[in-house]
Amino acid sequence: MSSTYLTRLSVVRVEDLAPSMRRIVLGGPELEGIVTGWKGDTDAYVKIAFFTPGVTYPERIDVAALRESMPAEHWPVLRTYTIRRLDAEAGELWIDFVVHGDEGLAGPWAARAQVGEVVHFSGPGSAYRPDPDADHQLLVGDDAALPAILASIEALRPGQRATAFIEVDGPADEQPVSTAGDVEIHWLHRAPAHAGTTNLLDDAVRAWPWPEGRVQIFVHGESGLLKTVRPYLVKERGVERRDVSVSAYWRLGETEEGFRAWKASERARGEEPMIRPGTPGA
């Protein structure tokens, strides 16, 4: 099968995790291909395809072929989302969506998704997992990074040390997580401020008592973190770049298409390490 064909899974369960977070659980025969190629990275992501209403598409979606045979306005729109968990035994793939009313494309879809609905996507790709040889893990992010942060916490080995700073609206948006690691989670509440408009994460990281030893770092979320947290970690703290996974998942006020264009320009100027794109609920 061509690598441009999209994987097809069906919605088997829907769970409301918090006022602004909904889990879509997917399953089906084609999950076997995901399981076979799974690397165990905790920031694994897929690109979900959304189709133009009223347009007839083939049962099997080959994105390259569609772009040759259909006008651009009918091409699938892709949105990038983190895999919260792959449960091979249960035959389930979990994807958590930030939902906020009618804003964007993927969020509204997730809010109304029904069991049995077919979802098409490419991937997964990935770039990070906690290194058991590091002395400490520092995990920093907002709602968009929450699935990857919680997956990373769950993946820690017994006694492995980690500290997480997570920005959400309020207490109702906090999520429980089980881990064998030695973890401190700091939930930062931004309400009534909106996502991407506060300095909560930057302030928290700068105030954190820096531990001894090698610190591996995962900082993902709104693009402003690249201008604040990353310089502090790399320039002021001197963390080696091999131990820093820092990237924007989204940019305030931008669709994913606009975000990708911005990110490409940042990379061209040497400002943005290429980890992966993504935007919550756009």
Automatic annotation (TrEMBL):
InterPro entries according to UniProt: FAD-bd_FR_type, FNR_nucleotide-bd, Riboflavin_synthase-like_b-brl, SIP_FAD-bd, SIP_fam, SIP_rossman_dom
Start and end residues of each FAD-binding FR-type domain: 4-131
Name of protein: Siderophore-interacting protein
Protein source organism: Aeromicrobium alkaliterrae
